[in-house]
Structure formats: structure tokens, C-alpha cells
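Hi W.,

Here's what went into the run:
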Amino acid sequence: MSEGLKWLQCPVCKETIYWKVPSDVLKDVDRFPTPIVIKHNDHYLVCYVDSHYQLADTEVASAYIEAQAKET
Ligand SMILES: [Zn+2]
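Here's what came out:
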């Protein structure tokens, strides 16, 4: 198994998901745990990783919508 590759059982469809920790992005993050959104089929998982890139928590999101904050 290559470095940074993680797996989890999808809480929605119970399939095993292999995913790669985006460590090149995470190295610029200074607050942990930080959420990572994974699209799986028609649902989304929000995985929180800690500063050691370990999975801290998983949430299910049936939809993922990006909203733009209004510039003040
Ligand atoms: Zn799934």
C-alpha cells in the first residue's frame, strides 16, 4: 500500500473506499482536524484528519454545496 493511502468503510453504501490523503494540500493547513470531502457515487463523506493525517471523524453529507461568502 502506497504512502498516504487510507481506506474506510463507506457509512452509506458499506463499500470500502480507498483514498489518498492530499498531503500536498494539508501541509499548508495549520488548524486540525481539517475536513476533507470525498465524493463517493452519489453521496459525499466529510473526513476529518488530524495533524498526523489520521482519520479523526467521518460525517455523511448527502449533498455538498459550495457557497461563496459575500465580500464585505
Ligand atoms: Zn458510498
